[in-house]
Write a structure and sequence with these properties.
Layout (H helix, E strand, L loop, with lengths): L27 E3 L2 H9 L8 H20 L5 H8 L3 H28 L2 H20 L4 H28 L9 H6 L1 H22 L8 H8 L1 H14 L4 H6 L3 H12 L3 E3 L16 H4 L4 H25 L1 H8 L4 H30 L1 H22 L5 H20 L1 H11 L3 H33 L3 H5 L1 H12 L15
C-alpha cells in the first residue's frame, strides 16, 4: 500500500508545506502535523485517489441506509413465515437499531484509537456476514441476531465515513469539507430509492408462489456492494493522512499524501514527531461536554435528535402514511414513496451540497426546519384527505417536508457533528452524536405506529415539535462549522 519517501538532510532547505501550493517549486516539506492538515486543506485532491476514497466512504453510507430500510416492505412476510407475535416482530424490526446504538459508541472510540482504515474494513465485514446470515436465517432468532450484527456495522460506519469525508477534503470552496460531509445525505436517499427500486423489481418478476423469498433477496443483496468495496480497498483506500500525522507518524502521512493526493512531500530532519496532544481514550467522550465543545455538542445533538425523530416518523413511515391516510394500494404506495424520495429528498440533498460552501450549514438548517414545520402543520390541518384536492395538498406537504430535510437538517446534521471537532475528537464526536440519534430513531420508529393508531393524522402535531425544537436550538447557538478550520484546534 505504501509508497517510499526518501528523506535527506537537505530537506529543511526545501519549500515549507505552509507556503501556498502555487509558490512551491519543489517537494513540500512537513515539519509538523499542522503542515499535513494544511496540505489537505489546500485541496490536493484535484489529482489523486482521494476522490475514490471519498466515493468508497460514501459507499459505506449507502450500505447504512440500504440495510436500515431494506426490511420495511418485508416485515409482514417475515412475521407470516415465522409466525411471529407482535413482540417477535418488534424484536426483528428493532434489532438493527439497537446494534447501531452500540456500534456508534464503539465505532467512535476505535475510529480515533486504531485509525479510520482498519475500522472501515472491519465494518464492511460486518455487512457481508450479516447480510448473508439474514438471507439464510432459519428462524426469527438468527434473523434478529444477524440484524443486530448488521446494526453494529451501520453504527460503526458513520463515524469512520464522516472522518474520511472531512479529512480527505479541502477547507474552502466548491467541494469543501462541509459539502463532502453533506454528500452523505443524497447518498442516503439514493440508497432508500435503490431499496424501493429493488423491491419493485422483485415484486414484478417474482412469481406469486415465490413471493415469500422477497425479503431474503432484499436483505441478502446488501452483501454485494460491501464485497465490492472490500475488493477495491487495496487499490484505492488508505489511512487518513491527518490522523496519521496526529499520531506522530509524519513519514506515514507523507506516504499517504503521495499516494492519495499526488503531493510530493518529505519530512524535515528537524520535524516535530510528537505524540498526540489529545490521545484516543474513552474519557474523550467527556471532553465533548467541556469548554468550547459543550455548545457545539449541544447544538449538534439537538439537530441530530430532532432531525432523526421527525424524519423516521415521516420518511420511514411514508408507506404507512400513503397506504393508510391516503388509502392507496401496495404498488401505488411503493411508487409514490420512490417518487417522493427521489424528487424531493434526494434533490434537496444535492441542493444542500451545492449551497453549503457559500450559504453555510446554519442558514440551510434553519430554512430546512422552517419548511418541515410548515409541512407538518399543514398535514395536521388537512387531516385524512377527502377528495383529490386534499390528497394533492397532503402529498405537497410531504414533498415540502422531504425537500426541507434534504437540504437542511438531513444534510447538515452530519456537518455539525463532524466539523465541530478536530481530528483527535472527530470519531468520538460523531459516535456520541450517532448514539443519541440512533436512540431517537428507535423511539421514533416505535412511537409513530402507536401514536398514528391513537391520534390518526393528529400525530403530525406531535411530530411538529421536533423541527420547532431544532429551530430554537439553532437560534440560541449560532455556530457555523462550514469553512472553519477546526483541525487547527489540535495544534
Amino acid at each position: 500500500m505504501s509508497v517510499d519517501v526518501s528523506l535527506s538532510t537537505a530537506a529543511s532547505a526545501l519549500p515549507s508545506a505552509t507556503a501556498p501550493a502555487a509558490a512551491r517549486s519543489g517537494p513540500a516539506v512537513i515539519r509538523s502535523a499542522a503542515d499535513v492538515a494544511r496540505l489537505v486543506n489546500e485541496g490536493g485532491a484535484r489529482v489523486s485517489n482521494a476522490r475514490w476514497i471519498v466515493a468508497i466512504a460514501l459507499g459505506g453510507v449507502f450500505l447504512d441506509a440500504y440495510d436500515l430500510g431494506a426490511l420495511a416492505f418485508g416485515l409482514k412476510d417475515v412475521s407470516r413465515e415465522f409466525q411471529l407475535t407482535p413482540a417477535g416482530t418488534g424484536m426483528v424490526a428493532s434489532a438493527i437499531t439497537f446494534g447501531a446504538i452500540v456500534g456508534a459508541f464503539l465505532g467512535g472510540y476505535f475510529t480515533d484509537r486504531i485509525g479510520r482504515y482498519r475500522v472501515f474494513m472491519a465494518d464492511m465485514l460486518c455487512f457481508v456476514i450479516a447480510a448473508i446470515a439474514c438471507a439464510l436465517a432459519p428462524n426469527e432468532y438468527v434473523l434478529a441476531g444477524a440484524r443486530f450484527v448488521m446494526g453494529l456495522g451501520v453504527g460503526i460506519d458513520l463515524p469512520v465515513a464522516m472522518a474520511f469525508l472531512a479529512e480527505f477534503s479541502k477547507l474552502k470552496g466548491r467541494g469543501n469539507k462541509a459539502a463532502r460531509v453533506a454528500m452523505w445525505c443524497p447518498t442516503w436517499y439514493a440508497a432508500i430509492c435503490g431499496s424501493y427500486l429493488l423491491v419493485l423489481l422483485c415484486y414484478s418478476v417474482l412469481p406469486a408462489s415465490h413471493s415469500a423469498l422477497l425479503w431474503r433477496i432484499i436483505l441478502g443483496f446488501g452483501a454485494i456492494p460491501a464485497l465490492a468495496i472490500i475488493a477495491v480497498r487495496s487499490r484505492y483506500m488508505s489511512e487518513s493522512p491527518v490522523w496519521a500525522a496526529n499520531q506522530g507518524d509524519l513519514d506515514a502521512a507523507a506516504r499517504i499524501l503521495k499516494r492519495s493526493y499526488g503531493i510530493d512531500a518529505v519530512v524535515a530532519g528537524d520535524a516535530e514527531r510528537a505524540a498526540p496532544k489529545r490521545p484516543a481514550a474513552w474519557s474523550n467522550y467527556g471532553k465533548l461536554l467541556k469548554g468550547v465543545y459543550l455548545r457545539r455538542t449541544t447544538l449538534a445533538t439537538v439537530i441530530a435528535v430532532a432531525s432523526s425523530f421527525a424524519y423516521n416518523a415521516v420518511a420511514f413511515g411514508l408507506p404507512v402514511i400513503i397506504a393508510s391516510f391516503l388509502a392507496q394500494s401496495i404498488l401505488t404506495t411503493i411508487l409514490m414513496s420512490l417518487a417522493l424520495n427521489l424528487l424531493f429528498a434526494f434533490t434537496g440533498g444535492l441542493l444542500g451540497v451545492r449551497l453549503v460552501p457559500k450559504v453555510g450549514a446554519w442558514k440551510l438548517t434553519v430554512t430546512g426546519y422552517a419548511f418541515q414545520l410548515a409541512a407538518l402543520v399543514g398535514l395536521a390541518l388537512v387531516g385524512k384527505p377527502d377528495g383529490a384536492t386534499q390528497v394533492a395538498w397532503a402529498l405537497g406537504f410531504l414533498a415540502l417536508f422531504l425537500l426541507g430535510q434534504g437540504f437542511g437538517p438531513g444534510a447538515h446534521s452530519m456537518t455539525f457533528a463532524s466539523l465541530s471537532y478536530p481530528t483527535s475528537l472527530r470519531g468520538v464526536g460523531v459516535g456520541f452524536n450517532q448514539t443519541l440519534m440512533r436512540a431517537s430513531s428507535t423511539v421514533s420508529l416505535f412511537l409513530f405506529p402507536v401514536l398514528a393508531a391513537a391520534l390518526s393524522t393528529k400525530v403530525f402535531w406531535v411530530i411538529a415539535a421536533a423541527p420547532a425544537i431544532g429551530l430554537l436550538a439553532l437560534l440560541a447557538i449560532r455556530w457555523e462549522p462550514s469553512n472553519y478550520d477546526v483541525d487547527a484546534e489540535d495544534f
